[in-house]
Design goal:
Helix content of chain A: 25-40%
Structural class of chain A: alpha/beta
Radius of gyration of chain B: 23 Å
Order of helices and strands of chain A: EEEHEEHHHEHEHEEH
Distance between the termini of chain B: 26 Å
Strand content of chain A: 15-25%
Largest interface: A-B, 24 and 22 residues
Radius of gyration of chain A: 18 Å
Oligomer: heterodimer
Number of strands of chain B: 0
Strand order of the largest sheet of chain A: 5-6-7-3-8-9
Largest sheet of chain B: none
Structural class of chain B: mainly alpha
Number of strands of chain A: 9
């Protein structure tokens, strides 16, 4: 089994959809085991596209993408994707939604049930197992989505602005819960977000991207030790990093205005 | 708009109905219309009572034809939609021709259908099936192809087979569409059966059915009885639509947004 070596490797990747404009230009990235990498940048910088390339949902136009040493599609059972909305199937209860990946893989009914119950407990939804998605709040739905993503114990979690639609309080709580889950489940994460504070709180590496075409602008290391607690947000060092990232984003915007 | 209170929901249709009946009697009195042109509501009720045995037998026969045609349309329509929803090439090859067939009025085809399917029940069921088949095919196909893109991506990420994607994602996602199609078909099926009987019933020498009663009362100029037949057909249609509404409730109430979350 794969133990050493990078979890994700992008080398000189370019991407365009059909005959459209270039979405990503010469992107290279190496994600090591245990990394929590956030991608941040203006809209249209292709950060969601990076996740699509890693997941194999969309192929690179040129360049090389490897996940756990193989092609992205071959590594699918080692990765899970968390979408912008919770993408729960509305006709299934919370529990059966969490069971879905196991069901698609052919796990036995009792195995599925136990695993789903365990995961829902882990995300604090023990009491909501038999609720349908429309009976759940936005935050609860996202917790179910997290539980579903973790059901196959993936090595790599791809998150596409998962908390973007939530209010700030809920978002903070879910950020903390996500890190707590990471302590237990030890996954590597690539996280796309619009929120600087969220990126700084969660990641050990932040990549600031520029747009038109999407490209790497700068990378920042975030050295606060894990586990991180909510009080980190109030510390001046945290604010310093937030300011640095904000300045970099501002730079990107100025560049874009200059070329536009 | 302000929601209506409980008694308003009941009283308002009763009031409008009373106005309607008053107008009915008024028009008759003012224009001096005779029963064989526009019978009064009480004459229709009397005719319905007098003809109750024939009407009862006829509605039973029509219900059988309508139900059989509806059942065929519901099952074959679903299978056809699965075929169309599963493959773009099947959809491209068949859908235009299905539309052509749908645009062809069944009334025009009816004599040929009787010729092919045979008089009596087979012809009636075929006509009913033809009339209620297309709304089901069109709705279910639409439902199967409009599954949420992110759900599809989720299934792909889980390495789901096409079969799993169809049965665990597309078919459940198409359920509200299927039920909408069934609702349309439920209003069409009794009409189809009655029309079929009207066409076929006399060809077979007249073995019951509301459609045949329409034919026979009309030739006998029993106009109040004709209105009573219309009323009976209307009740049959109600039963069909109510049954589908019940099915709709049973399938969708727990998860679909057309029902309040605390309805169950």
């Amino acid at each position: 089994m794969h133990t050493s070596g990078p979890i994700v490797k992008l080398h000189a990747v370019n991407k365009r959809y059909g005959a459209g404009p270039e979405v990503l230009h010469d992107v290279s990235l190496t994600v090591a085991a245990g990394d929590f990498v956030s991608l941040i940048g203006p809209s249209g910088c292709g950060k969601s596209t990076v996740l699509k390339l890693i997941s194999g949902l969309s192929p690179a136009t040129s360049g090389e993408v490897t996940v756990l040493g193989t092609a992205p599609r071959q590594a699918r059972d080692q990765q899970a994707f968390i979408f912008q909305d919770a993408t729960l199937l509305p006709w299934l209860t919370a529990r059966r939604n969490v069971e879905l990946p196991l069901r698609l893989r052919g796990g036995s009914a009792t195995e599925r049930r136990e695993r789903a119950a365990e995961l829902l407990k882990l995300v604090g939804l023990d009491a909501a197992q038999e609720f349908f998605p429309r009976q759940l709040s936005g935050g609860m739905k996202m917790r179910v989505s997290l539980a579903r993503a973790l059901s196959l114990s993936p090595k790599l979690l791809l998150l596409d602005e998962p908390f973007g639609a939530l209010d700030e309080m809920t978002r903070y709580r879910l950020n903390e819960e996500l890190l707590a889950l990471r302590e237990r489940a030890a996954f590597t994460a690539v996280f796309v977000t619009h929120s600087v504070a969220e990126a700084v709180f969660l990641s050990n590496r932040i990549i600031v991207m520029g747009a038109h075409p999407g490209r790497w602008h700068a990378e920042i290391a975030v050295d606060f030790a894990y586990p991180r607690r909510s009080d980190l947000r109030a510390r001046p060092e945290f604010q310093d990093v937030v300011n640095r990232v904000t300045r970099l984003l501002h730079e990107v915007e100025l560049q874009e205005e200059a070329t536009a | 708009m302000k929601p209506l209170s409980g008694w308003q929901v009941w009283l308002l249709p009763v009031l409008s109905g009373a106005v309607f009946f008053a107008l009915w009697y008024g028009v008759r009195a003012v224009a001096g219309l005779e029963s064989w042109i526009l019978p009064a509501p009480h004459e229709i009720a009397a005719a319905a009572w007098a003809e109750r045995l024939r009407l009862w037998r006829a509605v039973g026969s029509t219900a059988v034809g309508a139900l059989a045609g509806f059942g065929l349309a519901a099952s074959l329509g679903f299978l056809m939609a699965l075929l169309l929803g599963a493959s773009r090439s099947w959809r491209a090859s068949l859908y235009p021709w299905l539309l052509v067939l749908q645009m062809t009025p069944v009334i025009v085809l009816a004599p040929v259908i009787v010729l092919w399917a045979g008089p009596g029940m087979p012809g009636i069921i075929t006509i009913t099936w033809l009339i209620s088949f297309f709304p089901i095919v069109a709705n279910v196909t639409q439902g199967l192809v409009s599954a949420d893109m992110n759900h599809v991506a989720l299934f792909r990420m889980c390495n789901a087979s096409r079969w799993q994607e169809m049965w665990l994602l597309r078919v459940p996602a198409a359920m509200p569409y299927y039920l909408a199609g069934l609702r349309i078909a439920a209003t069409l099926a009794p009409i189809g059966a009655i029309f079929g009987e009207y066409m076929v019933g006399n060809a077979s020498g007249g073995s019951g059915g509301l459609g045949f009663l329409v034919y026979s009362y009309n030739t006998q100029i029993k106009i109040p009885a004709l209105f009573a037949t219309a009323l009976t057909s209307c009740l049959l249609g109600f039963v069909f639509v109510a049954a589908v509404a019940l099915l709709n409730w049973a399938v969708l109430r727990k998860w679909h947004d057309s029902f309040e979350p605390n309805d169950h």
